[in-house]
C-alpha cells in the first residue's frame, strides 16, 4: 500500500510533558483517515507538526516519501492543504475575494479555476456577501476552498464539523466525500464526533495520551462488529467448554457475559449448551459502533 503520510516514533515534549509519545501512524493514499482522540490527546500537535508549525522533539515523519528533516519536505508540504483550528479567512471580504487573495499569496499568474472551486464548495452564489455574514459551515467550506487553490492531493482538516448545525455538517460531509472520490484527494480528519466520522472514514487512527493505540481500516472494523455476538448465560465456565469444543474465538467478561467472534450455527450451539446444562439468558448481535470500539480501546479493553 502507498502512504501519503507515515510517522515513526514521533514525540513532542513540553518540559517533562509528552504531547506526542512515540506516535506511529500511516495514512494510506486515497483514504479518508479519521484521527480520533479526546481533547488534549495530541491531535492538533501532530497536525501542526506535519504543517511545519512545530518541530519534533524526537522521531520523524515522511510526507510523500520525504523525511521531515530533509530540505524537500517544504516542497512536499506544497502538495497538501490544511484547515487547522479556525479557517484563515478575511471576514471583510467576499468568498471570491478571499480566493483571489490566496492566488496572490501563492503567486499564481491567473485566477484559473476560481469559479469552479467556488462551485465545488457550494459558494458560487454568495455574490457580494462578506465572509463575516456567512454561517459557520459556509466559513468552513470557504476555508477548504482556499486550501484547494494550491491543488493539493492531501488535505488535513482539524475538527471540520465542530459547532456546525445539522445542515452544515451534511454539507461538509458531502464536500469531503466529493473531494475524496472525484478529485482523489487523501483526507485526514481529526474529530471526536465519532458518529459523523463513521459516515466518512475509510481508515482510523485512535490516539490517546500522544500515542496511537490502534490503526484499523473501516472494513476491518465492520468485520469485527459483524462477527461479534454477545451472550448472557447462567455460567460462563460451562459456556467455555462448548466454545472450546466448537473451536470458536471468544472473550469472557464475567461469570455470566461473553462475546463470540466467530459465526456460529445457533441451533447447534444452543443444543450443545443444553447438553452441559448451560442456560442461555440472552443472545444478541452486538450493536457496535465506532464510539464503543473507541471506548473499549482507551479503557484498555482491546478487541484484537
Ligand atoms: N505549547 C504548549 N505548551 C505546553 N503544553 C502544550 C502546548 N501545546 C499543547 N500542549 C498540551 O499538549 C496536549 C495535547 O494538545 P493538543 O492541542 O495537541 O490536543 P488535541 O488532541 O488537539 O485536543 P483538542 O481536541 O482539545 O484540540 C494538551 O495536554 C495540551 O495542553
TrEMBL record:
Lineage: Bacteria, Bacillati, Bacillota, Erysipelotrichia, Erysipelotrichales
Domain (ABC transporter): residue spans on this chain: 5-234
GO molecular function: ATP binding
Keyword terms: ATP-binding, Nucleotide-binding, Transport
Pfam families xrefs: ABC_tran
Listed name of the protein: ABC-2 type transport system ATP-binding protein
Keyword Nucleotide-binding: yes
Similarity annotation: Belongs to the ABC transporter superfamily.
Amino acid at each position: 500500500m502507498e502512504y501519503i503520510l507515515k510517522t515513526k516514533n514521533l514525540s513532542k515534549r513540553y518540559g517533562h510533558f509528552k504531547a506526542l509519545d512515540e506516535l506511529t501512524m500511516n495514512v494510506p493514499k486515497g483514504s479518508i483517515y479519521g484521527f480520533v482522540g479526546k481533547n488534549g490527546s495530541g491531535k492538533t500537535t501532530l497536525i501542526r507538526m506535519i504543517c511545519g508549525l512545530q518541530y519534533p522533539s524526537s522521531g520523524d515523519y515522511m510526507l510523500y516519501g520525504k523525511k521531515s528533516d530533509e530540505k524537500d519536505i517544504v516542497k512536499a508540504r506544497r502538495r497538501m492543504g490544511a484547515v487547522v483550528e479556525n479557517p484563515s479567512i478575511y471576514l471583510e471580504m467576499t468568498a471570491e475575494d478571499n480566493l483571489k487573495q490566496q492566488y496572490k499569496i501563492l503567486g499564481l499568474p491567473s485566477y484559473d479555476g476560481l469559479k469552479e472551486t467556488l462551485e465545488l464548495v457550494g459558494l458560487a452564489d454568495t455574490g457580494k456577501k462578506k465572509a463575516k455574514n456567512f454561517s459557520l459551515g459556509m466559513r468552513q467550506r470557504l476555508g477548504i476552498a482556499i486550501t484547494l487553490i494550491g491543488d493539493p492531493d492531501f488535505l488535513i482538516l482539524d475538527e471540520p464539523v465542530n459547532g456546525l448545525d445539522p445542515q452544515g455538517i451534511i454539507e461538509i460531509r458531502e464536500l469531503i466525500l466529493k473531494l475524496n472520490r472525484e478529485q482523489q484527494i487523501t483526507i485526514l480528519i481529526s474529530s471526536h464526533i465519532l458518529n459523523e466520522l463513521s459516515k466518512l472514514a475509510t481508515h482510523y487512527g485512535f490516539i490517546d495520551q500522544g500515542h496511537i493505540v490502534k490503526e484499523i481500516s473501516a472494513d476491518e472494523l465492520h468485520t469485527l462488529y459483524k462477527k461479534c455476538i454477545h451472550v448472557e448465560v447462567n455460567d460462563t465456565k460451562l459456556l467455555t467448554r462448548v466454545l472450546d469444543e466448537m473451536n470458536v474465538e471468544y472473550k469472557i467478561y464475567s461469570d455470566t457475559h461473553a462475546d463470540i467472534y466467530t459465526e456460529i450455527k445457533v441451533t447447534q450451539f444452543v443444543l450443545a449448551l443444553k447438553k452441559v446444562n448451560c442456560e442461555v439468558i440472552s443472545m444478541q448481535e452486538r450493536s457496535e459502533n465506532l464510539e464503543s470500539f473507541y471506548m473499549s480501546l482507551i479503557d484498555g479493553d482491546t478487541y484484537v
